[in-house]
Amino acid sequence: MIYRHRDYVNSRVNTHNYQGHQATMPNSDSIRIGISACLLGEQVRYDGGHKRLPFASEELARHFSFVSICPEQAIGMGVPRPTIRLVGEPDNPQLIGSSDSSLNVTSQMQSYAKRTVAKLNHISGYILCAKSPSCGMERVPVYDDKGNGLGKVGVGLYARELMAAQPLLPVEENGRLNDVHLRENFVLRVIAYARWQAIAAQGLTAKRLEDFHRRHKFLLLAHNQPIYRELGPIVAEAGDLDDRADRYIAKFMQALKQPASIKNHTNTLMHIQGFFKDHLDVEDKIRLTEVIRDYAEGMLPLLVPLEMLSLYLRKYQVDYLLDQYYFDPYPRDLKLRMGL
């Protein structure tokens, strides 16, 4: 079922109920992801069309709610409407009409963006429309006042405000989500950030911080081992909890933003293998080592050693591993590890 209500001027919120793995997702009815409205198939582009992103509308919609926003429509530009582009300096461009330079909606867009992103503390990620002068997160062409390309690129005005106001928020573009590694990494970050938001809403305690860090240990090792080693001392500090939490989550999200490499996954798998040394017979140990080696050499996908380890985990119930998010970081039916 889809519910709609108007939280923002000319924007819509689409809510899809989530029912999933309790160990993977926070204990809430749904995780919300902001999204450019055209990516959900809404006909709000300048020409009355859309840029529907099937991964969002067909795959993610099974598990997440969408906060659907079209900034250009929201500031009253209508559909269809004149095209606009970034003009001037890439770090501080104006939003000007492509055919009519007297059309300048810079201040309207900046004001709308500031008001809107301030109300988005309830979302856990955002998918933006690539190359858009309002929503593009990177590589948006910038022109001079005569319409000549400068060979420079900038960031859409709405996207700039969003990322400045919420630097921890996982943000991606529709085009980049065609890359299997970036797609997997985005969803992983969204759910991890939602877990953090959930414990912050409950009331952060030293114990909850310790549990959060412990349960993400192998995910962190797979993504960024140097930052993982920095996070442990922050958790162990005796100082102000709010200050520690702020420093922790900033580094935590920085660590996960780096997609996990084959080398780091291999090291992590070998680390986990060590927990079964007293359970496996010689033949099983050899076979597991061979499978991890084959993954490291590109002959097997990540799913194969993970499935073997998950089988042993279910069989031998190794306490420290049972609630590790590394084994089940997001809904399985999204098939995000198929190409890793």
From TrEMBL:
Residues 217-331 form the DUF1722 domain. InterPro entries: 2-thiour_desulf (IPR007553), DUF1722 (IPR013560), UCP037004 (IPR017087). This is YbgA family protein. It comes from Zhongshania guokunii.
